[in-house]
Amino acid sequence: MKRYEEVAATIRQRMEHGLYRAGDRLPSIRELCGEFAVSISTVQTAYAGLEAERLIEARPKSGYYVLPRSAPPVLPGVTRPTQRPLDVSQWDHVLNLVGEPGAEHVISLGRGIPDVEAKTLKPLFQQLAALHRRGHAAGLKYDSLAGSPQLREQLARLASSSGCLLHPDDILITTGCQEALSIAIRTLTVPGDVVAVDSPSFYGSMQILKAHQLKAMEIPTDPQTGISQEALELALEQWPIKAIQITPTHNNPLGYTMPEARKRELVALAQRFDVAIIEDDIYGDLAYRAPRPRTLKSFDDDGRVLLCSSFSKTLIPSLRVGWIAPGRYRDQVMHMKYVSTGASATLPQLAVADFIGQGHYERHLRNVVRQYQRNLDVVLGWVQALFPLGTGVSYPQGGFLLWVEVKGLDSVRLNERMAASGIQIAPGSLFSASGKYRDCLRINYTQASSPMYDALVTVSREIALMQAEQAAEAV
Amino acid sequence: MKRYEEVAATIRQRMEHGLYRAGDRLPSIRELCGEFAVSISTVQTAYAGLEAERLIEARPKSGYYVLPRSAPPVLPGVTRPTQRPLDVSQWDHVLNLVGEPGAEHVISLGRGIPDVEAKTLKPLFQQLAALHRRGHAAGLKYDSLAGSPQLREQLARLASSSGCLLHPDDILITTGCQEALSIAIRTLTVPGDVVAVDSPSFYGSMQILKAHQLKAMEIPTDPQTGISQEALELALEQWPIKAIQITPTHNNPLGYTMPEARKRELVALAQRFDVAIIEDDIYGDLAYRAPRPRTLKSFDDDGRVLLCSSFSKTLIPSLRVGWIAPGRYRDQVMHMKYVSTGASATLPQLAVADFIGQGHYERHLRNVVRQYQRNLDVVLGWVQALFPLGTGVSYPQGGFLLWVEVKGLDSVRLNERMAASGIQIAPGSLFSASGKYRDCLRINYTQASSPMYDALVTVSREIALMQAEQAAEAV
């Protein structure tokens, strides 16, 4: 970290801790030069950075002042999905989003792709190149079906940061988190079964239900605290639910993290009704505050939680290295893993194990999390400034996805209209079995660059145009 | 190829074409020196090699003579599996084989692993290293769900060699052939359905049936011409069969290739009963004679054949690059691919596309196929010399797997007894739903080295010991 970054970080921390509050005058440049033993230009650069982040403002001839932090904007209330098990639809729209990679140099607002150009990834590429160049036989045959022991050891070690005591043998490596979710769901269900899900819910797991003729019971979800336990309990009483599939930490798409107490209650509820929980923790490590939140799995004392995750959101998606900690279902999950794709590719696993073991993973996380957290404030500001009055916006506690609600908007049509300009958002309807949340959209804020700003300007203009057309039609 | 190899190859070819027949005296060393314009030692080395392969023998003071080629040993007759749909068992024994990779420097006789140390693979490792080192963003995000266009173009081009006219869009990339088979079966069935299979049949696809609660209808199979059409027709009349899952070219484990006329008839039969065919072509490119055999897919005029394959047997297993040409089921298979593992890893696909495009794939195939073909003769000789009289052995037309039948043998127990010596074979019972073929074993002949010979000596001694114990017990 450079000197001016250190100075900025300290000031930022003091604001977070309430030492400097909104409206306070900050120490003068000269005072800080003394305190940190740095040059005037270093302090000036630090203050300029904080100004760009909209955390402070310079008042001519007076100094720097702490800006009021915009109140976390939240969605109006708990979501209200249909209160009965539904077939999942929406595949065509999901395919439209995931079928093809975005063209290069276009900012994809729609997909959940991390910053793959972060400099802290470099040791990973070096290790991947070195392993492939060597091409030694051990890494070229079929790997252990459970996955490389080296990687499972590192994962067991990392799991302790989310409150989990896992042995390497409690973990199976998968082809991304998608395979982990897919084999978990297939292990627990047969066609016609009902799975309870948070709502809105990740389209990837919803589509697994569709492909295997399962029904989704969408549970009302609070955009700040997560799935409603009361509604879930009612559903468990009323329907023969086989599993609860949920993303309780840095939820996709809503960004919330369920409070620990509610996580504990959820596991207890699952115990009471004897159902399994499939926990998607793919964004879990991208917490804006240390330590990262605990998983449901950490409260699981009878092996009913199947924890699923991957490095697709923390490192790079195309590695296709994911994992599952399947608890009491280990044998069935191992069988399902074998029949689905056999053993996973070895060399990416070894490269990641090395990357973690040498401390690069934690360094990389610190780097990108700082970037995403700063971007959140910037992009939130942009959305509030550009989008129609009354727009609801989520307030993520980790990850890099924002959920935006514009009353009356048809986000599927919005997407179609923007196709020509090469901008794609994820329409909210993908996140519902029956296509609800059509007035919402999910955007990715891994970048807060000027192309990103331009893209948001284009989106907001198109929305305004659609609203004007709607108003004209209504007359 | 070195000069002495060229000389040996020409002599071998002349024997194959019948120019030199069993018992013939071969040209003298002096004559060949003249014909090939090489040194005496070159010809001597060539003849020594052919002698080691048991193709010729030196008679003192007389010269070199062509040895009688041992008649292709075949299994006694058509297999006789149970004639009703069965649940698949045997997972524990399969897991024993596929759960862990063999220790280094141990020759694994059991698994279907190609020679991953072949020199002609080198450009692949170089390209993989180069692509990973560069780490440019396009290859790091999620790939096209169908797979990289570059690779699909190369695959469409290669398909013409098996008589198939495929467009790149007819092909979807998968995580190895296992995923191709898995999504094909899941697309076509629901739990309780019946799938017809050749018998013996690849344990990997049999276990897919088990995991998804499907029943296997095992069809009698001729070790030279494949699945019995008559028995299959009877089964199709009698049972509600949803799909036929079959490996008609360089069959695993029997090694046969169905004659073209029978392939054509099989497709016609499937049309008459309106069932789909899942064709496993994973060993198809490893043909001992050019051109490689045609696929069932090449006779498919209404899109009912789902062709599945990968580079796990031709290049290296740990690439996990496979594909499926799903015909009329493309949309459902694409959906199933998405929910199973999402888009596949990009860089391995790009490396393979480049390897094929630059002609390395065809060069590599020529290299390893020659090696496997030579090894077959050597290993066949070893098995005939070492194993009990009356041992049946398959006569593969491609690939690198031998099927050995020893009347009265318990191959599962044989495996257990050899565990301490670090030698593993694939017991025949893995290849049957109900554990038939327990007196058979499958061995891999990618190597015909002295450790391989030693391993076969150990296996045959253990078999002799077991037979002696059995005889003693019977007294």
Highest-level CATH class of the largest domain in chain A: Alpha Beta
Mean pLDDT of chain A: 92
Q: Give the strand tally of chain A.
A: 16
Number of domains of chain A: 3
Radius of gyration of chain A: 23 Å
Distance between the termini of chain A: 59 Å
Quaternary class? homodimer
The side-by-side strand order for the widest beta sheet of chain A comes to: 3-6-5-9-10-11-12-4
CATH topology term of the largest domain in chain A: Aspartate Aminotransferase, domain 2
CATH architecture of the largest domain in chain A: 3-Layer(aba) Sandwich
Main sheet summary of chain A: 8 strands, mixed
Portion in beta strands of chain A: 5-15%
Level of helix content of chain A?
40-55%
Number of helices of chain A: 15
Helix/strand/pairing class of chain A, anyone? alpha/beta
Shape descriptor of chain A: globular
Stretches of chain A where pLDDT is under 50 for at least 5 consecutive residues are none
Under CATH, the homologous superfamily of the largest domain in chain A reads Type I PLP-dependent aspartate aminotransferase-like (Major domain)
Protein name (chains A, B): PLP-dependent aminotransferase family protein
Pfam families (chains A, B): Aminotran_1_2, GntR
InterPro entries (chains A, B): Aminotransferase_I/II_large, HTH_trans_reg/aminotransferase, PyrdxlP-dep_Trfase, PyrdxlP-dep_Trfase_major, PyrdxlP-dep_Trfase_small, Tscrpt_reg_HTH_GntR, WH-like_DNA-bd_sf, WH_DNA-bd_sf
GO molecular function, one term (chains A, B): transaminase activity
